[in-house]
Every structure is written in C-alpha cells, then in structure tokens.
Amino acid sequence: MAEIRDCPAPDPHPAGPTRFAVPPGAIDTHAHVIGLPPAYPLVAERSYTPPAAPAERYLGMLDATGMAHGVLVQVSVHGTDNRLMVETLRANRARLRGIAVIPLGLPEGELAALKEAGVVGLRLNVLFGGGVGLDQLERYGALAREMGWHLQFLFDARDLPAITPVLARLPVPLVFDHMGHMPASAGVDHPGFQALLGLVRDGSYVKLSGAFRVSVAGPPYADTIPFARALNEAAPERCLWGSDWPHVAAWDGPPKLSTLLDLMAEWVPDEARRRMLFVDNPARLYGF
C-alpha cells in the first residue's frame, strides 16, 4: 500500500489579487471543507491526510479574496460521507452550493435532501483515493439528469481521448477540473488537451484552476498560461475559476491565493471576459 502522507496546511493569510479588482458578485467554484475523526472519519483508501479545514476558515477565505459566493466540492478523504459539506451548505444557503460524491442506489429521500441543501452536481474523481471512478459513468449521467444536476470530473486529460465518445453522449452538462489536470510539460498540442478543448467547444465547462497542480515551472506558474488562454478562447462563456482551497496534496508547500488570483490577469487579460468567468458563467451553472 502506498504511503499516506500528511498535507501541509494552507496559507494562513489568504488575500485577493493585486493586479485587478475582483468583480462584484464573484464566485469561487472549487473549494473543500474538511473535518477530522472521530466526528468526520477519513476513508482508509485516501491518498493523503489533510489538516482540518472548517467552515469558518473557508468562509473567511471567501471574504478575504472578495468572493460573494462559493461552491464546495466533496473532498476525497471523506469518501461518500457528505455530512460536513451539507452542514456547511445548510448554514449558508444563499451563499453556497455543493458538489457531492455519492454511491449509486441512494434512496430518493436522501437524494432529495442533498438537492434541498444546495447540491447541484456530482463529482467523479479517479486521481485521489476515496473518490468515485468512471466505471458506472452512464448510470451517474442518468441519475444526474433525473436530479437536474451536472457531472464534474477530476482526471488526467492525457487519458481523455479513450473516453471522449462516452462523455459526449452523457445527457447532462459536464465540468472538468483544473484545466484537465495534466502537466504543463505535455504541451497544448497533446491529444488529451486537444480532446478537452473539443469537449469545451461542444458545450462542456472547464475550471481555470489548479495552476500549482499542473505547473512544472512553479510560481508564478507562467507555463500554465497557454493552457488557460486556449480554453478561454475555445468557450469564454463556459470557463470558471476556483481557488482549490485548502490546497490539499500541495507537496511543495501551499500556494499563495493572491498569486493564483493575480495569474488571472495573464490567463484572461480581458476584463469583460474575467467578469464572465468570475460572475456570469458560474451564476448560470450553479444557480446563484
């Protein structure tokens, strides 16, 4: 069994960008809340052990970075136990939405309770232990359609060409995390990234996020700029931004949120397009 490593804590002093003003109504579409045992057990098959990331610190991060709203994504270390995320959603109904990780076959009442709390999508994650993979992809697509939800994916885009035909047939909106989560050294001409561009052109959403995960060069992550610009050019109306707080599995040390936000001035230089990315696009997708 692979070693389960302890994650470093996130930057204790999150702050907004210095190179541009975050537009009013901005939405952070990707972050996590994390609890600790015994109240919130961690799954045995996890890839890492994180520090706690409670709701109050998450909300403080939103305030510090100028975000009016946020979208919580169920973190892999809690598996399909969505309790902490749902509790946080219920306590902040107007401000937050959620993306759940669930097994197939949940009773209708449990699905209805998730939707009532503010869950608007399901996540399939093949990169970190504790996530739900792609082996029941079409059944998850059918469930998401029934619930009025979308499907969100975390996987390495280099694997995308083999499953693109299946993804293209799914009957719900698709959202891809972290620009496809492939190393920047692979280049924008890689068939996997080109497959991602094709899906985005055809109607999928993509999160311009995770610079510290895909960069090979390190801060200020200049090697990620061609990827973000290509995706934004493909469909500026379907690009989203996410902080990815609290930056789990950031083994070289947690990124500074101000650096990640400042990078948006390079990723999306046009102010009107940045407003679409921070405000209009996520408001439409997540129902704010």
Task: Report on this structure.
This protein has a single domain, classed as TIM Barrel (Alpha-Beta Barrel), CATH 3.20.20. The longest helix has 16 residues, at 271-286. The strands form 2 sheets. It has an 8-stranded parallel sheet with strand order 2-4-5-6-7-8-9-10. Strands 1-3 form a two-stranded parallel sheet. With 288 residues, it is α/β, with parallel strands linked by helices. The mean pLDDT is 94. It has helices at 55-64, 83-91, 108-117, 137-147, 164-169, 191-201, 211-214, 225-234, 257-262, 264-267, 271-286; strands spanning 5-6, 27-31, 48-49, 69-73, 96-100, 119-125, 150-154, 174-176, 205-208, 239-241. It is globular, with a radius of gyration of 17 Å. It is 34% helix and 14% strand.
Strand runs, count: 10
Q: Remind me, CATH topology?
A: TIM Barrel
Number of domains: 1
Query: What is the topology, as strand order, of the major beta sheet?
Result: 2-4-5-6-7-8-9-10
* Secondary structure: helix percent: 25-40%
* N- to C-terminal distance: 42 Å
Principal-axis shape equals globular
Mean pLDDT comes to: 94
Report the uncertain regions. none
Strand content: 5-15%
Helix count, DSSP H or I runs of 4 or more residues:
11
SSE string: EEEHEHEHEHEHEHEHHEHHH
Largest β sheet strand count, sense and barrel closure: 8 strands, parallel
Question: What is the alpha-carbon Rg in Å?
Answer: 17 Å
Architecture (CATH level 2) name:
Alpha-Beta Barrel
CATH superfamily: Metal-dependent hydrolases
Structural class: alpha/beta
CATH class: Alpha Beta
